[in-house]
Design goal:
The protein is α+β, with helices and mostly antiparallel strands. The chain contains 13 helices and ten strands. The chain has a six-stranded mixed beta sheet, sandwiched between helices. Helix 4 packs parallel to helix 7 (about 200-210), helix 4 (about 140-150) runs parallel beside helix 9 (about 250-265) and helix 7 (about 200-210) packs across helix 8 (about 215-230).
């Protein structure tokens, strides 16, 4: 049942914070335009000089000189550059705190939090963003990312048969599960949805075993991915489900980077953004199962200032409190990441995300169209 909710910010506080953010953004836009001109003008002068020298050089060659030097000007003029090498997948860069970054206090019940503008990678608001925490089932965001990058689309229709070792692991550790039974056969696609929507440890370990042959081998792949993302100084995982372990830890900023990488993968974005998913019938579940993302279904009718939450994953163990990681988009296409940890209830985590989005992201981060046009055309 929904608990009674009282906003942690007054309307006056919210309006003041928005105004401060907008003024800071306008100043940054002007500064960015100045930097662009400072870079562009010298480059333009160099380019003009280079073209002039090139034309002068071509004009100075005689046919005899060209033959002696082995120069074929016609060939030079028809030369086309080699096609560019395909870029490597983009690794989320570090997030930057600025003078405008709000340091959250007791007004936000979650003990740790970070809110990030994805377009600029600026931290809009934070609270212990670089403190190492236990991520609980937010871990499963990395689980599906590593699995998605290790398989082909055709593999999603492959099947996997659950083992007693997997179900015993979940039972002994008191994990949340989809409810898959020993010898039950499901598709790899269903393992992805089962890992995220109901936070099923049975699906997660099944997915890990399918991809790497064993849970342990898959965890090595997860830590390799953390190193690739540049997070290995503070992030290290010992399992694929989020069970508590002193060595299984990261920061909320690390988790934001993991979520950013996951939302950049088509399959992960689809799975993390699904509100519900219906599995195929099996012998153990003859009518199939309807899986549900609790966070997405509960936040969709909360006041987020007009933003739409596009994907999310929650987590909970006693040592971490209630955690959540979400990705949201404003009507103008602006995108944001929010990660919180150690809230006193699952509902509190939802309300904290809604409040952060509403307070710091609800209005457009850029100046209005008239002012933007004025800035773009004005001499700086």
């Amino acid at each position: 049942m929904d608990e009674q909710y009282t906003s942690v910010f007054t309307e006056e506080e919210r309006a003041a914070r928005r105004r401060a953010r907008q003024e800071a953004r306008k100043a940054k836009l002007r500064a960015r335009r100045r930097r662009q001109l400072q870079i562009f003008l010298p480059c333009a002068l160099v380019a003009v000089l280079a073209v002039s020298l090139l034309l002068g050089s071509k004009a100075g060659h005689t046919p005899e000189e060209e033959e002696v030097a082995g120069i074929d000007l016609a060939a030079e003029e028809s030369f086309s550059a080699e096609p560019p090498v395909a870029e490597e997948p983009q690794i989320p860069s570090g997030y930057t705190a600025t003078d405008g970054t709000v340091q959250l206090g007791e007004e936000l019940p979650s003990v740790y939090a970070v809110l990030i503008d994805l377009d600029s990678h600026e931290i809009l608001a934070e609270k212990g963003a670089d403190t190492v925490i236990y991520p609980a089932s937010m871990t499963k965001i990395l689980t599906v990312l590593v699995a998605a990058e290790a398989i082909e689309e055709a593999d999603l229709d492959d099947t996997f048969t659950m083992t007693r070792e997997i179900t015993d692991y979940c039972y002994v550790n008191g994990c949340s599960v989809v409810g898959l039974m020993v010898d039950e056969t499901v598709t790899v696609r269903e393992l992805f949805y089962g890992t995220i929507l109901p936070s099923g440890a049975d699906a997660a370990v099944g997915l890990a075993t399918y991809v790497a042959g064993s849970h342990e081998a898959f965890v090595e792949m997860m830590n390799d991915k953390l190193e690739e993302l540049g997070l290995s100084d503070t992030a290290h995982f010992t399992n694929c489900v989020g069970l508590f372990d002193e060595a299984h830890a990261c920061t909320v900023s690390d988790m934001a980077a993991i979520l950013e990488a996951a939302m950049g993968n088509d399959l992960c974005r689809e799975v993390l953004g699904a509100h519900t998913y219906e599995t195929a019938p099996t012998t153990d579940h003859p009518e199939g199962q309807v899986l549900s993302n609790w966070f997405l279904r509960r936040i969709e009718d909360k006041d987020t200032g007009g933003l739409t939450v596009m994907g999310a994953k929650t987590g909970y163990v006693v040592q971490s409190g209630n955690c959540a990681a979400s990705w949201a988009q404003a009507p103008d296409g602006h995108q944001y990441l929010c990660v919180t940890a150690d809230a006193y209830s699952s509902w509190r985590a939802i309300y904290d995300h809604a409040e952060l989005y509403k307070t710091y992201c609800a209005e457009s981060a850029e100046p209005d169209a008239a002012e933007a046009a004025s800035l773009n055309g004005m001499p700086l």
